[in-house]
# Entry
Amino acid sequence: MERARDRMIYNIFNGIKAYAGTLQLISKLRLWKYFGVPMLISILVATSIILSAYALADNFGLYISNLWVWEWGKDTFFVISEILSGVLILVLGFILYKHIVMALSAPFMSPVSEKIEAHLLGAQRHQHRDTSFSEQLLRGIRINVRNLLLELLLTIPIVLISFIPIVGIASTILLFLVQAYYAGFGNMDYTLERHFKYDESIKFVKQHRGLAIGNGIVFMLFLLIPVIGIILVLPLSVTAASTETVKLLKAQNRLKSNDI
# Structure
């Protein structure tokens, strides 16, 4: 048990450290051209979520405030309800954002991951599953719908627990780690989809969940940076996840490669 915990912590730090040098690698391999459409998708989805939170906060706030049947403190309760509604919508928006963006970006991120893999393996020809644009898109949608449903199932009880004093602090950290895990999961699958089938990829990520969490931690922190965060989050996180996933597959001798 202790050994497994230490390995997870080690992998979390590896996932975080992988971000160092990602900008240089992207420039060296001339990958920026692949990120144009995903960046646009990221901006559009993020903008839609923010505008939705702003527009719906009043409506939900008014609905919640109706639960306060007394006249005294009604205005205060409405303000609190409005703020709480906005926060809840943004939290849900964060969850939806990453899965929508990662699912729709799958066909554009797979070539990026493949080029990084070829660069890391050097003068080798590696065998992998050849998939089309539509197959990559469907795989991305399938993975992210699955992850979205599981994440929501975990998030609901964590949010309810957060209202308990003291315990609420721990639940906030747990909620962040859950979101980080599924963000890293999606980033790792851009590499895994070439080598593993759907079920095999899920099993692989579960075995190396520390790496997914580490990658996702930085992913989530980037989203807190206005504008620049949503523009750079996908290029950097996908590059970081690809480098570490390829290294892990190679270390475990799970890449079928032949010298050219």
User: Anything to note?
Assistant: The mean pLDDT is 84. Strands lie at 124-126, 257-259.
